[in-house]
Design a protein that fits this description.
This protein has one domain: TIM Barrel, CATH 3.20.20.70. It is 37% helix and 15% strand. The protein is globular.
């Protein structure tokens, strides 16, 4: 029992500085006044201040109800509402109001739709590009059941970076992710890697994976052409979610960063507070 308490208590390296800065304050005011929905605020991201000051924000499209129920995710699960085809306009308007230089788009899984939401994805990216031509975009997409036609529809809309998270190692995928498959995620990343977009993925640590399994996952990602990878600490959203088995030390994260770069990744963001969109603006070039 004592061990469990120790594991759940966050170590000192998991503490992040309070967000500040003129740009951060301005963006915060815009978000509040216009009732904008960002993953930055709803997810209470530890890097929110740093990202907003860099002119980056993350939006979730296609509603707030997911058709899957992954054990690590705090998103609501159930029957989603109808697709809101005005959403691309509102997101593009938000990008303009927030004066963003880079934005990240993500979404819930929409297995209830024939196109898994690909049309709205493409519409949103296109609308942002139309209104803010200089803004760069990362699309953090679901797996679309590895349907190449749907994935290419999103790619062709023009986002500079297309990301899909493998989330964890092969052994833990069946008990961690809902419906998603390890090899299917690799197939998605392979499709992205063969396109004009930069391919990116992410994994979380601290749910029972072993070091050699992390290395195997990084090698698997490189084998399908993945160029950018993020590695961060898993944090349990609530007692009903997957428990934390270990807090990985900053030193170990640094080791993974070094090894990843040696494998040939162009960018490796590896640290306790790293999330999928961390330093996303740097992954374009």
């Amino acid at each position: 029992m004592n061990n469990k308490r120790n594991i759940q208590r966050k170590p000192k390296w998991m503490k992040s500085p309070l967000p500040s800065g003129k740009t951060y304050i301005n963006v915060k005011d815009i978000v509040a006044k216009n009732k904008l929905h960002t993953i930055c605020t709803s997810g209470n991201c530890p890097n929110m201040g740093e990202c907003w000051n860099a002119g980056t924000a993350t939006f979730m499209i296609l509603g707030e109800i997911c058709t899957r129920s992954c054990k690590f995710c705090n998103t609501m699960t159930g029957v989603p509402l109808a697709v809101d085809y005005d959403e691309p306009n509102r997101i593009a308007d938000s990008v303009v109001k927030m004066k963003l230089k880079h934005c990240v788009l993500t979404s819930v899984d929409r297995d209830d739709l024939n196109d898994k939401g690909a049309e709205l994805w493409a519409m949103t990216i296109s609308e942002i590009k139309k209104r803010s031509p200089k803004v760069t975009i990362e699309a953090l997409i679901p797996d679309f059941d590895a349907n190449e036609k749907l994935i290419k529809k999103v790619i062709d809309a023009g986002a500079e970076v297309i990301s899909h998270n493998v989330e964890t190692v092969r052994r833990l995928t069946p008990t961690t992710r809902s419906r998603a498959k390890y090899d299917r995620s690799l197939e998605v990343i392979s499709i992205i890697s063969k396109s004009k977009a930069r391919s990116k993925s992410g994994i979380m640590l601290g749910i029972g994976e072993k070091e050699d399994e992390v290395m195997e996952t990084l090698k698997d990602l490189r084998a399908v052409g993945c160029e950018v990878v993020t590695i961060g600490q898993y944090l349990q959203p609530s007692p009903k979610h997957l428990p934390i088995t270990e807090f990985i030390t900053p030193k170990k994260f640094k080791e993974y960063e070094t090894l990843g770069l040696e494998m040939g990744f162009k960018y490796v963001e590896s640290g306790p507070l790293v999330r999928s969109s961390y330093h996303a603006e740097k992954h374009v070039g």
